[in-house]
RNA sequence: GGGCGGGUAGCUCAGUUGGUUAGAGCAACUGGUUUACACCCAGUAGGUCGCAGGUUCGAGUCCUGUCCCGCCCACCA
C-alpha cells in the first residue's frame, strides 16, 4: 500500500541507493543484444551544477533508461574533465589570497595543490548529478587526468606528430596576458567596444614638413610599426608609394607600401603596419617581407622596444599616454569615438593580445572525412540545421594552436637535449614515455589544450589505445556510441574535434593491431568480436554532393559505409537549447538569475524537475525557464500518486504481479464501451509517444503521455468507472496504471519505481523491466474484441460532448454541482440508443437523478450537440429575456458560419478544384449548422410566445 | 558583411504534405469537497497568426519584400 502523501526526497534517496547497491546500471555485454552507449559530456571539475547540466543529463538518462527498457545493452559512461585553464585560474586565485604567485611555489607544488583540490572537490558535481537520478555505470568512471587517459592523450600526440600533423612554429597567436598563455581561435570571443579612433600625423622623410595621416585604435603599438600601407589603386596616395615616413615614436624611417588588403574608405585609407600585434598586419608583413617588432610583453606591458618612456607601462595606460605624448608633439590630429570589435579571452575576460610566438600546432586530420560522415547522415545531427554550422567551420578550418603556457594539464611529450639548439629537430625526443636518459633532457614546459584531451573522450573512455584495456572495456561492442547530448556552443570545441580525432586515430589499422602494424581492414574486424551495428538500421544512402572531392568519394565508396560506421564516435548528436531566464537572458552568476538546481530538487523532487524541464524544452530551441513549469512537474507526480490511491481504495485482494494475470482478471462479458475505448486510447497514445521519442521530441512525448493520463484516464475513465467498480474494471485500472508506470519511468524514475513496488507489480526493479511493444500488448489483450475500438472511442467522445454541454448549461446559470436540476434530452435513432446506453454514467457525471427523454421541443434553456438537443430545467424561474439574448447570439454566430460555408459552396472554382472530401465536409457542416440554427430559432419563437 | 533561429491568446509554446469554426498549459475570471487528488474538479473569457504584397477555389502554413528580437561566423585598422 502507498503512503497518503507524496514526499519525493526520501523515496528518491532510497531508490537511488537500492539501484546502486544492486548494480543495475553496470554494463552487461551480451552478444545477442545491441549496445547503446552514451558518453557523458564530462563536466569540469571546477563546475557547479547548473540548469544546463540538469537538462542535458535528464535527456541522457531518459535515453539510456529507454534503451534498457528496449532490452539493449545500455552503458552510460560518466566522468569529469580536468578543466585546464579554469582550474589553473582557480588555484592562482587561491595563492593570491596568500600574496603568492604560482612562480613562488613552483611547478611541482602547484600541480600538487591542484591535484589536492580536485581530490577534494572534483566529484561534487557528479554527486549532485546522482540526486537527479542519473543511471550511469559508475564502475567505468573516467577522469581526463587518469594515468591511462593521460597515456592515451600523449599517445595521440605522438602519433599525430609522427604522421606530420603536429608541428612547432612561430605564428601570430592569441595571447591572454592574464592567464599568460596562448589560446585557440575558438577561445577568443569578439565583443563590441566603445573605443577611440586616433588620427595621427606621420611626417614624410622625403618631404619634411608634410604629413601622412593614419587612423588607428591602437596608438600604443606605434613603436612596432614597420610600414604604412595604402591600397594600390587609391588615387590619393599613389604618388607616395615607395616613399618613407618617420615613425613618430622611436623615430625611424618606415616605407610606404601598397597592399590590396587595405580598405580605402576606412579612416584615412592609410594603415600603419604592426606585424607583431595584428593579424592583418602580420599577413601584409609576410607579403612584403617586413620585420615584426614586438613591443608588448607577455604580461601586457610594453617592453624596451617601446622606448624608455613607455617601457614597463600597461598596454591600456600606454594607449592614453601615447595619445597625450603625440598631442604635445602636435602629431595627434584628432580622436574620434568609434565602436569596434575586440577579441577577449573567454576565461579571463580581458582583451587578448595578438602576439608572435613559438607554439605547437595541429593540422586537423580527416577534415574531409568528418564532413562526409555528417553529410551522408552516418552521424545525424538533431536538429539538422546545426550540420550547416559544422560544415561551415570545417570549410574554413585553420591549424589549431594546442600548446598552453600553463602547468595544469597534460605536459607535451617533447624533450630537448640539454644545452642544444631547440630549433633543431635533431635535438628533439618525442615519445609517450620520454627518453631513457632523462638526466640529459629537459621536457617542453607547455601543456596541451584541454580540448585536445577531450577530443579522444569516445576512445579513451573505452580503453583506447591499449589493446588489453580495449578488450576489457569491450571496445568493439560498445563503440561507436549511440547518442551524444550536448549544447551547440561546443560544436567546434568538442563535437567536430571528436569526429576528426576518432576517424583519424581509429582509421589507422596499425594502431589497433601491433606496433609494427601490418594489419589490414579485415584484421581490424577480426578484433571486434561483437558487431552491434548490424542490428542497427543503416541510414538511407544519400547521393554524393558534387562539390566533394571525387577521389575521396571513390575511395570511401569502395570502403563502404559499413566500415565507416565502425569508426564514427557516435551516431546521433542531440543539441539541447540554452536555458534562459524568463526574460530571455542567459543564466549567469553575475546576474543572479540562475536558480540552484539542488534547491529545486529539494522543493519539487528530482522527478518533478526532470519532467517539468523536459516539458518546457521545445526541440532545438532555447528554453525560457520558469519555476512554474517545474511546479507543474511535481503536480503531475502528485496526480500519479493520487491515482494509485484511488485504485487502492478498492479491492486489493487480487493478483497484480504480471500483465498476464491482470488481463486474466478481465471478464469480457462485463466490458463496456468506456473500457474498450480507454484501452484503445492507451494503444493510440503509445503509438504517438513512440513516434515522438523516435524524433527526440521529448516535450511532445511528455505531453502525449500526460494528456492520456490526466484527461482521458483520470478525468474521464476514473470518473465513469466510479459508478460500476467490479473486477473487470479494477483489472483495467491495474493494466493502465502498469503501462503508465513503464511509459513514465524514464522521465520520472523514482516515483514510478516506488509506486511499482507499492502496488505489487513485481518483485524486481521497474528500472529493469522491459517495455512491451504494441504488438505484444495487443497479444495480451487478444481476448478482448478490439475490432470496434475506433467506433467506440468516437461514441465516448459524443457522450463526453453531451456531458460537457450539460455542465456548461449548469455553470451558465450558476447552479452548484450538487443541486439536482432536471435535464431533458431529444434524440433520434442511434443517438437515442447511445444515450440510453450511457445513461447511468451521464447521470453520475452530471450529479443528477433526472435525465429524461422528451419527444417535443421545450421552452427551456438549450444546447445542441451531435447526439441531440439538451434542455435544462431549473427549479426556479427562468429569465426569458436573458435566455433569448443568449440564443440570439448563438444564432447570429451560426448565421455567420453558414454564410461562409454557403459562399464557399457557391464558388464554382472551389467545387471544381477542391478534393471531394473537403467539399463533402463543407456540405455536411453547412447542413448541421442550418439544422442547428433552425432548431434554435424555433425555441427562440416559443420563448417569445411565453413572454 | 555572411549565415542560422524566432515573431500565433497576458505568458510559454503546438499547429503534419495548404482544406471544416487556429489549439494546449499557465495566468485571469465564475462555480464547486462527489470513491484518489484544492498540488484537485467543472466552466467562462481571451487571437487582424510581426507588417505589406503575391500564388491559390482556399494561406498561420508556399513565394517575394520588409520590420523587430536572439544566436553564430568574418582581419574594417
Outline:
With 947 residues, the protein is α/β, with parallel strands linked by helices. It binds one RNA strand of 77 nucleotides through strand 8, strand 12, helix 8, helix 11 and strand 25.
Account of the 3D structure:
The longest helix is centred in the C-terminal third of the chain and has 31 residues, at 916-946. Mean pLDDT is 87; it is low at 508-550. This protein has 947 residues and is α/β, with parallel strands linked by helices. Helix 10 packs antiparallel against helix 11. It contains 33 helices and 29 strands. It binds one RNA strand of 77 nucleotides through strand 8, strand 12, helix 8, helix 11 and strand 25.
Low-confidence stretches: 508-550
Beta-strand content estimate: 15-25%
Q: What is the tally of helical segments? A: 33
Mean pLDDT: 87
Largest β sheet strand count, sense and barrel closure? 4 strands, antiparallel
The helix fraction, in percent, is 40-55%
Strand order of the largest sheet: 6-5-14-16
Number of strands: 29
Distance between the termini: 61 Å
Q: How would you classify the helix and strand content by structural class?
A: alpha/beta
Shape: elongated
Amino acid at each position: 500500500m502507498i503512503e497518503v502523501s507524496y514526499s519525493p526526497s526520501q523515496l528518491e534517496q532510497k531508490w537511488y541507493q537500492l539501484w546502486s547497491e544492486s548494480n543495475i546500471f553496470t554494463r552487461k555485454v551480451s552478444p545477442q543484444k545491441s549496445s547503446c552507449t552514451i558518453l557523458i559530456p564530462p563536466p569540469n571539475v571546477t563546475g557547479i551544477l547548473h540548469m544546463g547540466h540538469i537538462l542535458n543529463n535528464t535527456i541522457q538518462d531518459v535515453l539510456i533508461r529507454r534503451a534498457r527498457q528496449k532490452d539493449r545493452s545500455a552503458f552510460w559512461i560518466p566522468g569529469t574533465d580536468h578543466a585546464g585553464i579554469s582550474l589553473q585560474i582557480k588555484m592562482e586565485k587561491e595563492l593570491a589570497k596568500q600574496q603568492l604567485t604560482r612562480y613562488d611555489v613552483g611547478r611541482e607544488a602547484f600541480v600538487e595543490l591542484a591535484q589536492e583540490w580536485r581530490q577534494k572537490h572534483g566529484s561534487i558535481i557528479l554527486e549532485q548529478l546522482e540526486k537527479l537520478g542519473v543511471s550511469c555505470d559508475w564502475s567505468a568512471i573516467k577522469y581526463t587526468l587518469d594515468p591511462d587517459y593521460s597515456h592515451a592523450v600523449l599517445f595521440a600526440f605522438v602519433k599525430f606528430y609522427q604522421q606530420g600533423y603536429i608541428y612547432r612554429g612561430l605564428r601570430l597567436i592569441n595571447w591572454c596576458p592574464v592567464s599568460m598563455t596562448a589560446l585557440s581561435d575558438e577561445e577568443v570571443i569578439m565583443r563590441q567596444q566603445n573605443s577611440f579612433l586616433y588620427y595621427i600625423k606621420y611626417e614624410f622623410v622625403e618631404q619634411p614638413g608634410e604629413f601622412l595621416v593614419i587612423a588607428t585604435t591602437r596608438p600604443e603599438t606605434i613603436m612596432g610599426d614597420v610600414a604604412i600601407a595604402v591600397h594600390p589603386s587609391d588615387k590619393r596616395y599613389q604618388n607616395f608609394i615607395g616613399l618613407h615616413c618617420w615613425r613618430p615614436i622611436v623615430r625611424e624611417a618606415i616605407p610606404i607600401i601598397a597592399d590590396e588588403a587595405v580598405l580605402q574608405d576606412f579612416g584615412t585609407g592609410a594603415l600603419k603596419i604592426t606585424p607583431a600585434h595584428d593579424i592583418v598586419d602580420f599577413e601584409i608583413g609576410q607579403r612584403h617581407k617586413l620585420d615584426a617588432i614586438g613591443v608588448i610583453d607577455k604580461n601586457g606591458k610594453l617592453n624596451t622596444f617601446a622606448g624608455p618612456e613607455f617601457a614597463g607601462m600597461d598596454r591600456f595606460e600606454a594607449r592614453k599616454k601615447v595619445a597625450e605624448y603625440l598631442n604635445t608633439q602636435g602629431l595627434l590630429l584628432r580622436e574620434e569615438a568609434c565602436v569596434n570589435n575586440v577579441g577577449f579571452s573567454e576565461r579571463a575576460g580581458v582583451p587578448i593580445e595578438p602576439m608572435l610566438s613559438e607554439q605547437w600546432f595541429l593540422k586537423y586530420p580527416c577534415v574531409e572525412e568528418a564532413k562526409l560522415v555528417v553529410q551522408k547522415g552516418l552521424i545525424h545531427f538533431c536538429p539538422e540545421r546545426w550540420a550547416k554550422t559544422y560544415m561551415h567551420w570545417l570549410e574554413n578550418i585553420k591549424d589549431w594552436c594546442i600548446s598552453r603556457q600553463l602547468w595544469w594539464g597534460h605536459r607535451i611529450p617533447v624533450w630537448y637535449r640539454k644545452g642544444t639548439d631547440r630549433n633543431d629537430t635533431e635535438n628533439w625526443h618525442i615519445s609517450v614515455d620520454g627518453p631513457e636518459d632523462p638526466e640529459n633532457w629537459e621536457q617542453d614546459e607547455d601543456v596541451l589544450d584541454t580540448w585536445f584531451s577531450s577530443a579522444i573522450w569516445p576512445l579513451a573512455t573505452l580503453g583506447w589505445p591499449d589493446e588489453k584495456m580495449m578488450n576489457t572495456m569491450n571496445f568493439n561492442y560498445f563503440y561507436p556510441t549511440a547518442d551524444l547530448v550536448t549544447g551547440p556552443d561546443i560544436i567546434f570545441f568538442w563535437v567536430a574535434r571528436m569526429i576528426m580525432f576518432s576517424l583519424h586515430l581509429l582509421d589507422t589499422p596499425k594502431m589497433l593491431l601491433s606496433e609494427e602494424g601490418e594489419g589490414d581492414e579485415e584484421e581490424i574486424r577480426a578484433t571486434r568480436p561483437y558487431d552491434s551495428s548490424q542490428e542497427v538500421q543503416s541510414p538511407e544512402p544519400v547521393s554524393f554532393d558534387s562539390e566533394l572531392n571525387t577521389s575521396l568519394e571513390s575511395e570511401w565508396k569502395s570502403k563502404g559505409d559499413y566500415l565507416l560506421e565502425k569508426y564514427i564516435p557516435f551516431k546521433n548528436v542531440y543539441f539541447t537549447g540554452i536555458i534562459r531566464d524568463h526574460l530571455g537572458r542567459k543564466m549567469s552568476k553575475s546576474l543572479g538569475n540562475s536558480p540552484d538546481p539542488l534547491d529545486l530538487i529539494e522543493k519539487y523532487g528530482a522527478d518533478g524537475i526532470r519532467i517539468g524541464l523536459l516539458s518546457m524544452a521545445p526541440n532545438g530551441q532555447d528554453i525560457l525557464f520558469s519555476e512554474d513549469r517545474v511546479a507543474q512537474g511535481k503536480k503531475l507526480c502528485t496526480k500519479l500518486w493520487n491515482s494509485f490511491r484511488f485504485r487502492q481504495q478498492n479491492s486489493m485482494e487480487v493478483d497484480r504481479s504480471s500483465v498476464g494475470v491482470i488481463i486474466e482478471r478481465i471478464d469480457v462479458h462485463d466490458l463496456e464501451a468506456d473500457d474498450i475505448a480507454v484501452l484503445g486510447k492507451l494503444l493510440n497514445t503509445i503509438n504517438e509517444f513512440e513516434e515522438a521519442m523516435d524524433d527526440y521530441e521529448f516535450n511532445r512525448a511528455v505531453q502525449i503521455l500526460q494528456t492520456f493520463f490526466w484527461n482521458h484516464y483520470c478525468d474521464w475513465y476514473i470518473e465513469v468507472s466510479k459508478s460500476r467498480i467490479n473486477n473487470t474494471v479494477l483489472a483495467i485500472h491495474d493494466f493502465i496504471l502498469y503501462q503508465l508506470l513503464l511509459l513514465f519511468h524514464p522521465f520520472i524514475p523514482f516515483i514510478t519505481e516506488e509506486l511499482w513496488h507499492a502496488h505489487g507489480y513485481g518483485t524486481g526493479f521497474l528500472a529493469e523491466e522491459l517495455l512491451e511493444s504494441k504488438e505484444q500488448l495487443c497479444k495480451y489483450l487478444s481476448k478482448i474484441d478490439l475490432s470496434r475500438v475506433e467506433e467506440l472511442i468516437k461514441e465516448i467522445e459524443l457522450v463526453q460532448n453531451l456531458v460537457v454541454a450539460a455542465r456548461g448549461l449548469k455553470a451558465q446559470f450558476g447552479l452548484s454541482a450538487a443541486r439536482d436540476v432536471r435535464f431533458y434530452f431529444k434524440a433520434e435513432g442511434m443517438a437515442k440508443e447511445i444515450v440510453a446506453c450511457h445513461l447511468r454514467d451521464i447521470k453520475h457525471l452530471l450529479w443528477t437523478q433526472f435525465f429524461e427523454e422528451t419527444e417535443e421541443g421545450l421552452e427551456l434553456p438549450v444546447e445542441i450537440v451531435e447526439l441531440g438537443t439538451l434542455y435544462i430545467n431549473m427549479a426556479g424561474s427562468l429569465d426569458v429575456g436573458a435566455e433569448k439574448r443568449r440564443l440570439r447570439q448563438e444564432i447570429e454566430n451560426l448565421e455567420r458560419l453558414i454564410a461562409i460555408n454557403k459562399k464557399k459552396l457557391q464558388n464554382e472554382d472551389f467545387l471544381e478544384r477542391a478534393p471531394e472530401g473537403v467539399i463533402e465536409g463543407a456540405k455536411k457542416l453547412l447542413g448541421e449548422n442550418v439544422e442547428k440554427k433552425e432548431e434554435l430559432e424555433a425555441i427562440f419563437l416559443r420563448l417569445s410566445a411565453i413572454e
